[in-house]
Design brief:
binds zinc ion; 5-stranded antiparallel beta sheet; alpha+beta
Length: 149
Amino acid sequence: MTAEPQANARECELCHGAGGTLLWQNDLCRVVVADEPGLPGFLRVVLGRHAREMTDLAAAERDRLMAVVFAVETHVRQSLEPDKMNLATLGNAVPHVHWHVIPRWRDDRHFPGAVWSPARHDRAPPAGRVARAAAMAAALPAALAARGL
Ligand SMILES: [Zn+2]
C-alpha cells in the first residue's frame, strides 16, 4: 500500500482532534462518544494513526481493531438493549479509519433508515435512554478491561 500523503494527515480532523468525548484508548485506537443529538449511546472507534482504508492496515492491526469494535458493540448491546445495532465505516467525509457503533431503536429519528438518512421526526429520545447511555459510556473502560483490552 502507498503511504498516505502528508497533506491529508495534516488536514485530517481525526488526526488533530479526538472526534468526540474520549472514553478509552490504547496504542492502536480510541473510543469516543459521538455526541450526536438524538442518538444516545452512539460511539466511534477511531484508529490512532492516519490511514484511509481498512486494507491499509496490517492484518494483525485489523484483527485488533475489530476486537475493540466488537467489544464495544457487545458492551453497548448489553447496557442499552437497543432494538438493533448498526456498525458502519464510511469515511467519505473524513477519510481516516473509524467505526461507528450505533444502538438503534424503532422510535429513533431515522429508524429504519441509516442515522445519516433524513430524520423522520424530531422527538427527543426518552430521558431514561439518555441516562442509560451516559452510564454505559462511563462503564465502558471497565468493560473493555474485563475483556482483556
Ligand atoms: Zn487522520
